[in-house]
Amino acid sequence: MIRLTRRAALALPLATPFVAHAQDASAPWRPSQTMRIVVPAAPGGTADISARLLAPFLQAHLGQSCVVENRSGAGGVIGTQEVVRATPDGHTLLLGNIGPQAIGLSLYRSLPYKREDLTPVCGTVRGPNVLVVHPSVPANTLPELVAHLKKNPGKLSFGSPGVGQSPHLTGVWFNQATGTEAIHVPFRGAGPAALELVAGNIQYMWDNLTSGITQIRAGRVRALAVSSADRNPQLPDVPAARETMPELAAFDVNTWFGIFVPSATPRPVVDSLNAAMKAWHETEEVKARWREMGGVSLYGTPEQFAAFVANEVQKWGEVIRKEGLQLEVG
Length: 330
Fold this sequence. Notes:
ten-stranded mixed beta sheet, Bug_dom1
């Protein structure tokens, strides 16, 4: 009897941890230390706004501090590379975007990371670019602008916030699809480009709706179309470009943002972060902020967001290859 009791007593410490481990394995992942959201852009833009909306929610929802760190430079490459190199445990997140996570993969030579180095978790927001012209341009519709460009090949100029950025490549695709020619004038940011448009020093540009809507509402520029597949609620009378001409039937451009993690991050971590972001997207605060910015929620499962990103990589790769555009990382 004594031997049996001893055996039973010896067995208990072994059985108890096994049961506890099984319970832990079935529970959702939660962070064990401070989380970081790395933004590969300067403060103040849509990527930064997304991150600073998300961080306090994750902190409350997951029970650990969550901080935002801006790592701008080299078109988003520096911040992206930092996350690629981070420990894949869910504590370092990338607030990625169309630039380094789609366009940059084809645009830059010798990129220090591959698409496969990151796992898409969930989108935050997407929003169209808007085609705006100076009031002196004799065009009230997109087809009228195309006709004007064809009558004056290479004589009109369009601005952008920089070579390879979404508004620039939207203009490139627009010219490719419509068979038009114009001079590209890059600026250091959307603000300087918009000022030159208002001054009449450039004739048109594709601008992020979130930054261009103020000039449109003030009547300083004329909006002809949005780049998304559908009209935007902020400008319901402005058509989607693809509505206006058969040549633009496939035209669909959104600047977009979302959360990525290093590729070796375990699936339970990805699922837990995605579930938290689903709850975040459903809050009234986030819905109101996207409406205010002219943006649309980009919630999706990890598989849906990954498919969205893959389509963006392919789309911009084709545009960039057709244009013969290649840049050095710098």
